[in-house]
Amino acid sequence: MRSGKRRPGDGPSVLVVGGGFAGLTALNTLARSSAQVTLVDRNVYSTFQPLLYQVATAGLTASDVAYPLWSVTRKTRAQFRQGELASLDLAGRTARLADGTELSYDYLILATGVSANFYGVTGAQEHSLSLYTRRDAIALRNRLLAELERRASGEADPELDITIVGGGATGVELAGTLAELRNIALPVAFPDVDRAKFRVRLIETAPALLTPYRERERDYARQQLANRGVDVFLNTTIKEIAPGKVTLADGSSHRSDVAVWAAGIQAPDAPWNAQLPRSRGGRIAVGPDLRVTGHDNVFATGDVCAADPPQPQLSAPAIQHGKHAGEQILRLMAGQPTVPFHYHDKGIMATIGRRSAVVELSIGIRLRGTIAWLAWLGLHLFYLLGGRNRVVTLVNLSWRYLSWSRGGGMIVGDDQVDDDSPADRAGQAADQRGQG
To answer: Which of 13, 21, 174, 323 has its C-alpha lying 20 to 30 A from 333's C-alpha?
Structure first.
């Protein structure tokens, strides 16, 4: 089946693969042009990844961080096609989806996102949970609640050890929130669970947490986690993850009932990108204007592209990539040469827990504590898509932080993931490939 043919009088066709920050920004940039834009994503929704850890710890519902892609395409006058990219015919300028549909294009923007990078650690892929997709967050939350319920009913050993691998923003945010859940909400929500036997461990290979930050902010983050009762291991390398245990490079081991991998990402290992030039982390090599090396009509954006100089794998660079790719297509449509991409670093921020965060702005302002936490919260609400999502997220997070000591702030009964169903197994495999 073939579609995506140009209609008489239409402008050039642009195919955008991936409905994340980069892909949606590219759509908005091209919205007022004559280009015929089609968005492809394996999901019918866009996921706001920075708040996935709140879904994983039962503070938000999965729908709070999801926004329907058809709403975006309707506003930008684009078409939406749900599907998974299977292969590319770069010479013929066509993309083939897993269901056999072929979409032709004049310009292609790859914004597929990434998947977990396990760095060859034995058992990591098989015995740890990731936190890169909405499905990942639901699976982790369901596992966490199931472990707590088993201990509350006496069906399992009262000890509960959670190991988080990776001391970047995701690992720090997850560790801090899990510790607060244990310290504040657990005595009321699960009174039969002994919180003294609920341990949260954070393991990082580097000598510090949050390595992109300045030393003072890194030290603050570590101290805040320690104050919340998180066991932080620095300069520590994981050798193996097995059911119920993690083994370190020095040969020592720790009990681990749940292992969460937040240590790195890589480009999806999929047939469609095998023919594209690859760079660090398996990501797609691009030129100064974000066009894929050797392919003048193909752009790679967001985490999947290896821009030079390297940029942080965050939402801000992805948004700027998407805008730049869209602008370069507009220039090419007008017969103008492309221009190099220049990343505008506005700053970075990470939260450790309630009333605790670190913010570093490019203008030299550095914040810690409550004011940084409020800035973090405000910015994330601003970037959430959809008025309903903003309101519900604000209500849910406010309720979480105001009512934890009374047993509130833990959402149960939300979306379930049936790991035994063929559909969910296929969905998990696709998520691991990083599509969307």
So the answer is: 21
